[in-house]
Amino acid sequence: MILEIVEYGHPALRAKGRKIETIDHDLLQLISDMLETMYEADGVGLAAQQVGRPLQLCVIDVEGIKDRPSNMWVDGKKVDLEDCMPMVLINPELELIGKPKAGVEGCLSFPGIRADIDRPPRVKVKAIDAEGQPLSFEADGLLARAVQHEYDHLQGVLFIDRMSDKDRRALDSEIENLRTDI
Ligand code: ZN
Q1: How far is the CA of 15 from the centre of ligand 1 (A)?
Q2: How far is the CA of 154 from the centre of ligand 1 (A)?
Q3: Measured in whole angstroms, how far is the alpha carbon of residue 1 from the centre of its chain?
Q4: Which of 31, 38, 71, 129 makes an SS bond possible with 46, Cβ 3.0 to 4.6 Å?
Q5: Span from the CA of 45 to the centroid of ligand 1 (angstroms)
Q6: Is the model's pLDDT at 167 over the cut of 80?
Q7: What is the set of active-site residues?
């Protein structure tokens, strides 16, 4: 089922996600709906907050974004992205590696808004997958950026919080226009 993606101004986007203790039927249904919703919206990632559910849960699929490649390693060995996508991250923890670099980002909760965001180029991730199994990997490229963007959502942090003051000011009226009265 396609879910409604909430836009800037919705309180769920500012809520820190609750840690997931059990993977039950309802959670699996939510994961399946979030994947369907992400693909339908042409996104590379979607956090539970964006469908109005503040949980430590996000889905990601960067496969097929050929102009912005990613690499992924498990236990220090490079793995094929296609074997790992889509990716479901439950209760993720991140370790950020390297000096932040600028890269363009958008967000399904901010339609039409894009800006350069500085983020470390590489990330180590520990999480639980949809089967309840521990997941541990390293990533660079678009995947490292997408993981950090989604992780931020799970803490109630939005990409506008990380824009340069100059970009934030330039986009201010567009961003404020998205605010819906809820
Ligand atoms: Zn986003």
Answers
A1: 14
A2: 10
A3: 20
A4: 38
A5: 7
A6: yes
A7: 150
